[in-house]
Amino acid sequence: MPALILISATAALTNGVLQMGFTALVHRKWRVIVIEAAVVAASFIVLSNFHRLYLFPFATRIMTYVNSYLIASELVDRPTVLDVFGERGVPLVIALAYYPTFISVGRELIENLKVRGLKFSPSKVVLPLLVFTIKVANELEAAYTVKLYGKFRRTLPKLGLWDYLFVLSSVVVSCLSLVILR
Amino acid sequence: MHMKRETRRLVVYSTVFSIASFGVAAAMSLSAGLFAVGGPVGVFLDPVINLTVPLLLISIGFQVINSKGGPLLMGLISAALFAVAFLPFLALTNVVVGLAVEGSSRILGYRGMRAVVVNTALAGGLEGIVSVLLGALFVGYLINATLALIFTVAYFAESSVIGIMSQSLGSYLLKSGVLK
Questions:
Q1: Which of A32, A83, A126, B8 would staple B3 via disulfide (CB 3.0–4.6 Å)?
Q2: Which fold would CATH assign to domain B5-176?
Q3: Structure pTM?
C-alpha cells in the first residue's frame, strides 16, 4: 500500500509513463492494458497535433491511479485493514470492494442474458444494476445502523519520526508536481 | 458514525450514487478518450458522454434519496471525487449543479414527471456548459460563442431526454417496491 501511494505520488512528478507501465505489469489485466494503451496513444497523437503536449502527463497519471486502484482492490487484505484501523477502515474496505463487486455482478448479468437467449439491450442491463445499487445502499445503511462489522474501536497506531517523514515527503512531492505543472 | 438516522441515510445513499456515477463517468470518458480531443468543437464533446448513464444515475439518486439536502450533498461528494482526480473545473461545476438542483427541488419536489425532468435538465445542462466554460478557463482555450450557444441547447435537450428515461425507470422501481 505505501509503495502504491509512493508510485502514484511520483507519477504526479514525472511524465508518468514508467509508473503506468510498472503498475500495469503488476495487475496484468490484459484487456484493461490494451484499452489504456489505446487511450494513451490517442491522447498523445491528438495532443501533439494541437501542440498541447504539456497536458499529456494527465493521461498517464490517471492511468497510473486506475492501475493502482485495481492492484489495491485485488491485493490488499481487507481483514487486515479492519484490524489496523478499526471502524475507521470500513469506508476504505467498501471503496476497495466496489469495483470487483460491480464487475462480478455485471458478469453474472451478461451470463444470464446469454443463457436465456435474450438479446443484449441497455434497459436489460441498466435496470438490474440500478436495483443492485439501491440494495447496496440499503444494506450499507443497515450495516452502519446495527454495526454488522463489529464494534471495535481502535486508537490508531503510534507513528514514529520516520513515518512522519515519509508522509511529509509524499505530501511535498504531490505539492511540487502542482508547482512544476504551472 | 454517530449520526441521526435520517442524516445517516442521506450520507450513505448520496455517497453510493455519487461514486457509482463518478465511476461510470470515468470509465466511459477514459475509454472514449474524448478528454484528449482538443480543437474548437472537441472541447464540447466530453459532456455529451457524461450526460448519458452518469447523469441517469445522478437523477435516480435524487429520486431515491427524496429528501432535502440530497442534491447538494451529492454535488459536494462528486466535487470531492473530481478534486481527488485532479479535475478542479469539474469539482467546481458539481458544486454549482448541486446548489441549483437543491433550489429547484425545494420548489418542485423530487418525484413525479415534472420534478424529475426539470431537475435532470437543470443538472445536465448546467454541468455541460459550466464544465466547458471552466475547463476552457483552466486550459486556456478560447471558446466560440455561437458553438457554445448551440451546445448549451443540445446539453439541455439531451438531459431532458435522460430525465424522461429516469422518470420511467424510477416509476418502475416505485411500482415494483424496490423504492419506498
A1: B8
A2: Arp2/3 complex 21 kDa subunit ARPC3 (1.10.1760)
A3: 0.77
pLDDT 10s digits, A40-63? 887 788 777 777 677 777 777 778
Across the interface, which of B9, B16, B36 has its CB nearest the CB of A47? B36
The domain segmentation of chain B, as residue ranges, is 5-176
Cβ distance of A131 and B173 shorter than 8 Å: yes
Mark out chain B residues that contact chain A at CB-CB < 8 A: 1, 5, 8-9, 12-13, 16-17, 19-20, 23, 26, 30-31, 33, 35-39, 53, 56-57, 60, 64, 85-86, 139, 169, 172-173, 178-179
Nearest Cβ partner for A35 among B31, B37, B85: B31
For residue A149, report the phi and psi dihedrals to the nearest 5 degrees: -80, 5
- Please name the residues in contact with A22: beta carbons below 8 A apart, sequence gap of 6 or more: A7
Tens of pLDDT, residue by residue over B113-147, are: 999 999 999 999 999 899 888 888 877 777 778 88
> Do B38 and A46 lie within an 8 Å CB cutoff?
yes
- List alpha helices for chain A, DSSP H: 2-13, 17-27, 30-49, 56-75, 78-85, 90-116, 122-146, 161-181
Closest-CA distance, A141 to chain B, in angstroms, reads: 6
The letter for the amino acid at B107 is I
Q: Are A92 and A85 in contact (CB under 8 A)?
A: yes
Taking CA atoms, what residue in A is nearest to B63? A134
Query: CB B23 to CB A99 under 8 A?
Result: yes
What cell was used for B163? 430525465
Find, among A180, A17, A62, A69, the residue nearest to B35 by Cα: A62
Residue written as grid cell 469539482: B91
